Amino acid sequence: MSEILNEISTYLQAGKAPKVKELVQQAVDEGISPQEILEDGLLAGMNIIGGKFKNNEVFVPEVLVAARAMNKGITVLRPLLVAAGVEEKGTVILGTVKGDLHDIGKNLVRMMMEGKGLKVVDLGVDVPASAFIDAAKEHNAKIIACSALLTTTMGEMKTVVDAVHQSDLNGKVKIMVGGAPVTESFAESIGADCYTPDATAAAAAALSFCVA
Ligand code: B1M
């Protein structure tokens, strides 16, 4: 693999956003394909950070700066990828449910999903069920992903699941849930399609739904 792609991966892991952006531009100028820069430079680095995060070798701040560096690199590539007709792997509607303002974990989920090449429409925090549904229809999404950090707002996930089942999205979108108080058995009890305990696992599961 080209040395510059290794450098992109290394600087991304170190969270050096301006350097990553500069190297991505340099790689483009050297004639390396945008797809190769994305897969073997940016995503390779993000996958390493994701693995370390899962194993508690790095923590939230490191993941946030690495994700920021990845986003800087992607700003250079995005127009080229679209022009080259590289299809995004699928769209995810993501948000923290109604009544809940915690967004740090949700933001990590977003970054990890983007790191897998998924398009994420982030509705933010305090998102009512109707907004998840409207956005999924508008963006032709494959997944609705809900985060909740409070035992008092977990129940809102059932409202989202019920609303999807009663809409014409039923059977067309998968509903993923997560957040500190959420468990596998809770997810099953409300009829969600998937529970994952952390952002890395959420991104892997979302990708598997999108490429299935
Ligand atoms: Co709040 N808060 N908070 N808080 N807060 C908790 C959650 C709490 C456990 C603290 C405690 O009492 N020990 C407690 C909840 C208790 C409960 O319900 N059982 C609590 C409370 C009570 C409250 C308030 C009610 C306090 C008050 O006002 N009296 C209030 C509620 C406001 C509201 O939402 N309506 C409140 C407010 C706040 C702040 C605004 C101050 C701030 C949030 C800032 C922000 O998010 N921008 C805050 C914070 C920071 C916390 C703690 C300290 C940290 C949460 C966090 O960001 N963790 C938290 C205590 C704790 O967890 N130690 C606490 C780091 C983050 C990376 O983890 O979000 O769990 P987490 O995300 C993980 C996984 O859960 C998972 O992936 C991430 C990691 O990979 N994940 C998903 C998350 N979403 C996922 C979705 C998926 C899959 C995985 O698929 C879709």
Automatic annotation (TrEMBL):
<dbReference type="GO" id="GO:0005829">
    <property type="term" value="C:cytosol"/>
</dbReference>
<dbReference type="GO" id="GO:0046653">
    <property type="term" value="P:tetrahydrofolate metabolic process"/>
</dbReference>
<dbReference type="InterPro" id="IPR050554">
    <property type="entry name" value="Met_Synthase/Corrinoid"/>
</dbReference>
<dbReference type="GO" id="GO:0050667">
    <property type="term" value="P:homocysteine metabolic process"/>
</dbReference>
<dbReference type="Pfam" id="PF02607">
    <property type="entry name" value="B12-binding_2"/>
</dbReference>
<keyword id="KW-0479">Metal-binding</keyword>
<feature type="domain" description="B12-binding N-terminal">
    <location>
        <begin position="1"/>
        <end position="89"/>
    </location>
</feature>
<feature type="domain" description="B12-binding">
    <location>
        <begin position="89"/>
        <end position="212"/>
    </location>
</feature>
<dbReference type="GO" id="GO:0031419">
    <property type="term" value="F:cobalamin binding"/>
</dbReference>
<keyword id="KW-0170">Cobalt</keyword>
<dbReference type="InterPro" id="IPR036724">
    <property type="entry name" value="Cobalamin-bd_sf"/>
</dbReference>
<protein>
    <submittedName>
        <fullName>Corrinoid protein</fullName>
    </submittedName>
</protein>
<dbReference type="InterPro" id="IPR036594">
    <property type="entry name" value="Meth_synthase_dom"/>
</dbReference>
<dbReference type="InterPro" id="IPR003759">
    <property type="entry name" value="Cbl-bd_cap"/>
</dbReference>
<comment type="similarity">
    <text>Belongs to the methylamine corrinoid protein family.</text>
</comment>
<dbReference type="GO" id="GO:0046872">
    <property type="term" value="F:metal ion binding"/>
</dbReference>
<dbReference type="GO" id="GO:0008705">
    <property type="term" value="F:methionine synthase activity"/>
</dbReference>
<dbReference type="InterPro" id="IPR006158">
    <property type="entry name" value="Cobalamin-bd"/>
</dbReference>
<dbReference type="Pfam" id="PF02310">
    <property type="entry name" value="B12-binding"/>
</dbReference>
